[in-house]
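Page 42, continued from yesterday. The earlier attempt failed because a stray header line got pasted into the input along with the sequence. Redoing it now with the clean sequence only.
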Amino acid sequence: MVSGKYSALSGAVSRQQAMDNIANNMANIDTTGFKKDRISFEALLKGSQQVANGRGINYSRIRKIGVDFSQGPLRETGRDLDVAISGKGFFKVRGNGNTFFTRNGSFYVDNNGMLKTTDNFNVLDSSSQPVQLAGAQGKKIHIDEAGNISLDNVPSGQKIQIFTVSDQAGLEKVGNSLFTLKKGTTSQPTDSAAIIQGNLEGSNVNMVEEMTMMINTQRRFDACLKVEKNYSNLSERQNELGTVA
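This time it went through. Structure tokens are written below.
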């Protein structure tokens, strides 16, 4: 009886964690370059263990929370230093002594001609060196699909590089649409993706999909609580019968 209550409780806890994940996805629906998280569940007891050790009762938990790196929609801004990636890859940036990867291509040029992110991080080129556009102030900036930068139609010799990673599972979220690389994961320049100037990539969160998942998750959460309550009521009745006997 007690095992059944814990099984229902474990299901409720897992669904509550799933609700938190959905809420975070929905909160970032307007965050540039945001990649949604997806939860997968698993049973603690497998096959014969469930029958022999669990007596037919199982427990659930979150198996993993994985990032969905699918392409988000491109939104036209018309701004020269807004760039989006069409295809797989990331911009490589550096700040606060650390290197990050992001799909947020909202950049600006500071007074020293350094190409910066909205977090004031340096944007890096193919050699992982900061991109510097000397004399860019007041000039028309053009960025082609390969990332090459021209000022008033004159090549600057600078390039915004797109990078891929050896294993996307090795990317860890750190907030603000930024990722760091886990130990053992490497990055490398790529020419397989294109840079689209005057656009930003939106979040890949689909509101309708998330709302549907939220409703289903809430129903399962309520069902688990109802089962847990029924087990509690049965336990009370069992105790009463035991007292009468």
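Notes: The helical segments are 2-27, 48-52, 207-244.
Reminder to self: strip header lines before submitting.
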